[in-house]
Design a protein that fits this description.
Chain lengths: 287, 255
């Protein structure tokens, strides 16, 4: 990846130790966040989020489907991340596949909660139309346009913005729906139901360099990490998912400390993101 | 194949430090686990190394109905297409037999398992000891009875040790399920399908370092604390069971 000389490496490590990073930020500062909603007209909801040089697009598309036999009272959500080779040459062909699947699994873990649906960011039962027969399948597709570190956090923020921009069409079910095997549904193209995104968590990745942790790491800083912990935190301050990256082992007490730092950082990020999303939406309406 | 080494501890359930038994005061007191265990009681663990002759190292693990076999090949020359690397590579592959689950051909997320197995183990392996070469780990779930993944990881680290790959420490893995207000250790498949959340820790017991931690579902910090403590305690005990299995294998070969 990024090849760094010994001098550069020491500069990055030393800067992090002194709470002044190469681009002038402190350890727990984010790069400028930019949100734009409604970027894809064909989708039910979409958003573009930029964290400095990292640029991602998320779109949410709803299609009529059938609920699974195991969970007849719930709709389905699938996430997919596409790392475009325009972002980096190493994503070409199957190169981005591993990263893509890693990211989409991490996102799925953060958004969908446990098997029983507890603690899910997206309420799956709100996607049901006729129990056991018709439901909405929500496809969340993300595209990495440009990769400049901290992809997971950016994708998480983009999905939150895209979902708050999502309108699910109101559906009329034919009167004798209960008896029919595949009831007829009438999808309104004028009335839309707003998606409730208050419980969608944000993801905070803490990258450990030396003895300190930083947020929103650049690729240069990521190359110096010993390990990173991605924590997703919701509005209530509860942890909704956690994954660890990087080989080096961590002491359990360090992990707990990282979780509490992530919780603290997530509050600021949530407030910032919410205000950015509402600003983006008002800009979109003005157009 | 349910025999156990005589000197090994029978189970690796964590010992409760606090006396008040937090799970008894809950309203659902009469709730019993499908196999009749206590909430903080693990299934008896059985490990055996040298299950596959052709491999450099292999191990078989059986915890209740969960049965896995892991073989390790290598270190052998990396594929020609690979770039030069001055540290060794690790290649993990997890697969299920078609008859592993009650519904045939279920469980499509093996790719996730493969990459997670890689992440859980890479921190424990001294990759710098076999530059330019690759170690392949092939894991097969013969029967899925819950907590498949933690069993896989523990079994894989035993197989690595059996193959003589340099390790910092064995890797022991334990999962906890959150069911309502209860924390249930080492869940079986039924419990996993109803769980509100799960927490998985893989750790190196002698170094007391966590190599991988994943959490799903909604957790409060104090609950994470409680679950981590349970898991780490169980990991330490599981590590002892695994160690005694290796010692036993070594003593039989010298006899």
């Amino acid at each position: 990846m990024t090849a760094l000389s010994l001098g550069e490496r020491l500069f990055i490590q030393g800067g992090i130790a002194q709470d002044l990073r190469a681009d002038g930020r402190g350890r727990l500062d984010y790069r400028t966040l930019y949100v734009e909603t409604g970027v894809i007209p064909q989708a039910n909801g979409s958003a573009r989020v930029r964290f400095g040089g990292t640029d991602v697009i998320a779109s949410a598309k709803a299609e009529i489907g059938r609920p699974t036999l195991l969970q007849p009272d719930k709709g389905k959500v699938s996430t997919h991340v596409d790392c475009s080779s325009t972002a980096a040459p190493m994503f070409e062909g199957r190169g981005g596949e591993e990263l893509s699947s890693e990211l989409s699994i991490a996102l799925q873990r953060c958004l969908l909660g446990g098997k029983s649906g507890a603690g899910a960011g997206i309420d799956l039962s709100s996607l049901i139309i006729v129990e056991g027969k018709v439901c909405w399948d929500l496809y969340i597709e993300c595209l990495v346009v440009s990769s400049d570190g901290n992809l997971l956090d950016a994708l998480g923020a983009a999905i939150k913005a895209a979902l708050s921009n999502t309108g699910i069409p109101r559906v009329q079910v034919a009167a004798d729906a209960a008896s029919e095997e595949q009831p007829e549904v009438d999808i309104s193209d004028e009335e839309f139901l707003q998606f409730d995104t208050s419980s969608v968590p944000v993801i905070v990745t803490l990258t450990k360099v030396g003895r300190h942790y930083i947020v929103d790491a650049t690729p240069e800083e990521e190359s110096q990490m010993s390990s990173a912990v991605s924590v997703s935190v919701n509005r209530k301050g509860h942890i909704c998912g956690l994954t660890k990256r990087g080989g080096a082992g961590l002491d359990p007490s360090v992990i707990l400390d990282m979780i509490s730092v992530a919780k603290h950082v997530s509050e600021q990020l949530l407030t910032k993101l919410d205000s950015e999303i509402s600003a983006a939406e008002s800009r979109e309406e003005d157009k | 194949m349910a025999g156990k080494p005589n000197d090994a501890p029978a189970t690796y359930s964590p010992s409760l430090k606090n006396k008040k038994h937090p799970f008894y005061k809950n309203s659902d007191l009469d709730w019993v686990r499908p196999d009749g265990r206590g909430f903080h009681q693990c299934r008896p663990a059985f490990f055996r190394t040298g299950a596959v002759n052709a491999a450099s190292g292999s191990a078989y693990a059986e915890l209740g109905n969960t049965k896995v076999i892991v073989s390790v090949f290598g270190p052998r020359e990396s594929k020609k297409a690979m770039m030069y690397s001055d540290i060794g590579r690790l290649n993990c592959n997890v697969s299920y037999t078609t008859f592993a689950t009650s519904v045939r051909g279920q469980g499509s997320d093996h790719k996730e398992f493969s990459s997670m197995l890689h992440k859980a183990l890479e921190g424990a392996i001294r990759l710098e000891t076999f530059p330019k070469t690759t170690v392949d780990i092939f894991a097969l779930v013969l029967e899925s009875g819950g907590s498949d993944f933690p069993v896989l990881i523990s079994c894989a680290s035993l197989a690595l040790a059996d193959a003589g790959i340099m390790l910092h420490d064995l890797v022991a893995a334990v999962a906890v399920s959150s069911l309502g207000s209860n924390l249930v250790i080492d869940p079986v498949s039924e419990e996993e399908s109803y769980q509100d959340g799960s927490l998985l820790i893989t750790c190196m017991p002698s170094r007391y370092e966590v190599t991988q931690l994943t959490i799903t579902g909604e957790w409060s910090t104090s609950r994470i604390n409680e679950a981590m403590e349970l898991c780490l305690d169980a990991c330490t005990k599981l590590g002892k069971v695994m160690r005694s299995c290796l010692k036993e294998a070594a003593s039989t070969t010298t006899d």
